[in-house]
Amino acid sequence: MELRQKGDDEMALIIYGTQYGTSKQYAEQLATITGDSVIDSRHLPKELPEAHVIFVGSVYAGRMTGLKKVLQVLAPERNELTVVTVGMTDARSEELVAGIHQPIAAKVAEKKISLRGCYHLQGKVNYDGLALKHKLVIKPMVAAFKKKPANELDEQAKMLLRAFDQTNANEPTIDFAVLAERMT
Questions:
Q1: Are 183 and 33 contacting, i.e. CB atoms less than 8 angstroms apart?
Q2: pTM here?
Q3: What angle do CA 117, 6, 12 make, to 5 degrees?
Q4: Domains annotated on the chain, with CATH
Q5: How far apart are CA 127 and CA 158, in angstroms?
Q6: Record's SUPFAM superfamilies (predicted)?
Q7: pLDDT for residue 61
Q8: Could you tell me the pLDDT band of residue 4, with boundaries at 50, 70 and 90?
């Protein structure tokens, strides 16, 4: 599935839900690529006139930031939705990504909204910028993972360690080329 069909003249509205800014960066870059408008999920109108909505949201502990608000303003007879999740799971891990997308697809189906597609993009961690509640969760988890031999870690733990090690030093890991590739 593609986010937009080649030659498709319809304009979409890109909405983002973010806690630390990565989803906002993806949404703004997507808007640059497509020419569509972009808005924060916290500032949604009561209804959306655009037929196609692309929602880019961060995923934390199985919950997608802003999804509930987006689903409240969509109308089955008027809107269709594309979902782009952003999180620590590596987009190449089809099984783990499916585990993220299945409950989201179920929520969208409950609202009888047409789901055009689900995509996942790698997020990043800037430990210094995390809220205290997230630091209290991540720090002991990372420390426990680092104490274990690599062969005893599951794929999700390995991904979290890689992401934490890569981005804790504020190295950018968002690959906008991946986003553009998925658009064509």
A1: yes
A2: 0.77
A3: 55
A4: 12-125+171-183 (3.40.50.360)
A5: 17
A6: Flavoproteins
A7: 72
A8: very low
